[in-house]
């Protein structure tokens, strides 16, 4: 990679947002935990110190050897990062006596300053800190204040070291992007030449050099990440890549055929494997959600391994891992607690002695989509809602049978097509239907019925970590309910899930 900004993470919930904002400026950046600072190579043009839930006054507060780079490279401390700079060099950081959360305005702002250019008097910023900088060290000067926070921004005289107590990365800081541009482009002198096309060229060259004439195998899921990763690898090494797309019998209606067809049109060398029965056999009688996930994960690896063994001399395994997965596993907070075991991030079983190649492990999801578009991948793959690896198995509560899968596929099909036909699909982050393990009484014609209940779910989200239910129009929901009950045999009641995550989750299991 060419030039980049290094972001040292002290554990703030906003650190990923800083990275996204920097990348929106077409400048590459990486997040590293404060306690694992990488070697400061010449491609690093500047360093941002993130916020933190900790206080610099705490015993054992997160710390970093700032002298190793201060004065040599531009440094911007954000919130905790700014307080760390102040307290380390002789200033004073104390608990705030007044509220310093939420909106504030920079009433005093030195607009001649290179960090604050193109901002305006009274600029709205977002504060979120329990501590505040009371005194700055000698040689540090205040360059912006609010009515209650004197040291909202500071600069160290004679060097490119800055601190700000507000969060420029959140959208509530209305001119935060200007400030970050001033730092990254003006002060660090980054070129803004990091785009999908430069990423593709650099990655293809890297993949060629790394893989050479070896063979690669890769599992495709129909989702965006694995499709884009495979296309990049294919561009680098052509038919040395073999892709495997498994029909686990838990996909959406017609999905296997349609996606396989798209892959073939894209020129990928892909083997479609019908393993439906193998999965149904392994799932027979299982009702516990985690047991179902584990069984699916196990069978997937068995099927995949069988296919991989048919390819002679394969050395590499391609994976669609993206940046948030990587950050999560090395973050200050450590890997997050397992709420559900996501089998497809479980890594590689030992018996597959393959090296891993992950061309997307520096990209965020929206960047993966951009790269996919630049690679010419069809919109029906790029714009797809996320779909879980265990598929409909975690949307059929209780045990899995081929018949239940068929029923749910029909319901899901009506709902998803309905969203598309009514122009709602792209407004929803993820949608699907859930088959409940209960029956309810109904009446159809003159007959009493006692049939299945399905729930519809549609959520908005950015990354799946939190989500809210979407307020779909009532008349649309009414239409869906009618169509489902009239057309899907065995279903006589439709409900709509109005739970947010947290406290619920997106999937029911
Ligand atoms: P939850 O239900 O945890 O889902 O709120 C968050 C996101 O993750 C997807 N999900 C999975 N994806 N394997 C996957 O590949 C899984 O076992 C799994 N469980 C949930 C879910 O669809 C949503 O996008």
Count of DSSP H/I helices: 13
How large, in whole angstroms, is the Cα Rg? 26 Å
Q: Mind telling me which CATH architecture of the largest domain this is?
A: 3-Layer(aba) Sandwich
- Low-pLDDT sequence parts: 334-339, 342-346
Share of residues in strands: 15-25%
Number of structurally distinct domains: 3
- Identify every distinct bound molecule in the structure, by name, code or SMILES: xanthosine-5'-monophosphate
How would the global form be characterised? globular
Main sheet properties: 8 strands, mixed
Could you say which structural class the secondary elements and strand pairing correspond to? alpha/beta
InterPro entries: Class_I_gatase-like, GATASE, GMP_synth_C, GMP_synth_GATase, GMP_synthase, GMPS_ATP_PPase_dom, NAD/GMP_synthase, Rossmann-like_a/b/a_fold
Subunit structure: Homodimer.
Keywords: ATP-binding, Glutamine amidotransferase, GMP biosynthesis, Ligase, Nucleotide-binding, Purine biosynthesis
Active site: 79 (nucleophile), 167, 169
């Amino acid at each position: 990679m060419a030039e980049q900004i290094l972001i040292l993470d002290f554990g703030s919930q906003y650190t990923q947002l800083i990275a996204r904002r920097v990348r929106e400026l077409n400048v590459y950046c990486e997040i590293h935990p404060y306690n694992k600072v990488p070697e400061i190579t010449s491609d690093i043009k500047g360093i941002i110190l993130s916020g933190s839930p900790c206080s610099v006054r705490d015993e054992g507060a997160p710390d970093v050897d700032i002298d190793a780079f201060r004065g040599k490279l531009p440094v911007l401390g954000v919130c905790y990062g700014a307080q760390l700079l102040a307290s380390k060099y002789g200033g004073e950081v104390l608990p705030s006596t007044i509220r310093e959360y939420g909106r504030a305005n920079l009433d005093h702002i030195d607009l001649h300053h290179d960090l604050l250019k193109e901002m305006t008097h009274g600029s709205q910023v977002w504060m979120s800190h329990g501590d505040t900088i009371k005194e700055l060290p000698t040689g540090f000067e205040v360059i912006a204040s609010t009515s209650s926070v004197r040291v909202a921004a500071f600069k160290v005289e004679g060097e490119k070291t800055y601190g700000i107590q507000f969060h420029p990365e959140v959208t509530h800081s209305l001119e935060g992007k200007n400030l970050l541009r001033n730092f990254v482009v003006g002060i660090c002198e980054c070129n803004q030449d990091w785009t999908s096309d430069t990423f593709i060229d650099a990655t293809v060259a890297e993949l060629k050099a790394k893989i050479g004439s070896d063979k690669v195998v890769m599992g495709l899921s129909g989702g965006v990440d694995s499709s884009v990763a495979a296309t990049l690898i294919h561009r680098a090494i052509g038919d040395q890549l073999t892709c495997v797309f498994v029909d686990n019998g838990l996909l959406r209606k017609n999905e296997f055929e349609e996606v396989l067809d798209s892959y073939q049109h894209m020129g990928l060398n892909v083997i479609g494997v019908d393993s439906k029965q193998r999965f149904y056999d392994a799932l027979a009688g299982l009702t516990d959600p985690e047991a179902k996930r584990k069984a699916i994960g196990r069978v997937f690896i068995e099927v995949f391994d069988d296919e991989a063994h048919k390819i002679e001399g394969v050395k590499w395994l391609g994976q669609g891992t993206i940046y948030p997965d990587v950050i999560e596993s090395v973050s200050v907070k450590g890997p997050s607690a397992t709420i559900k075991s996501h089998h497809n991030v479980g890594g590689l079983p030992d018996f597959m002695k393959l090296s891993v190649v992950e061309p997307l492990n520096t990209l965020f999801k929206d960047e993966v989509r951009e790269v996919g578009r630049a690679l010419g991948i069809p919109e029906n793959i790029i714009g797809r809602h996320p779909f879980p690896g265990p598929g409909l198995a975690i949307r059929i509560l209780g045990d899995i049978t081929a018949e239940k899968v068929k029923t749910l596929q029909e319901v899901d099909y009506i709902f998803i097509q309905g969203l598309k036909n009514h122009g709602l699909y792209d407004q929803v982050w993820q949608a699907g239907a859930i088959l409940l393990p209960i029956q309810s009484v109904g009446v159809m014609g003159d007959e009493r019925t006692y049939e299945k209940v399905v729930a519809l779910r549609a959520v908005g989200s950015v990354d799946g970590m939190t989500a809210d239910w979407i307020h779909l129009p009532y008349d649309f929901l009414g239409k869906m309910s009618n169509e489902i009950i009239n057309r899907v045999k065995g279903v006589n009641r439709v409900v709509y899930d109005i739970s947010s995550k947290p406290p619920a989750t997106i999937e029911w299991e």
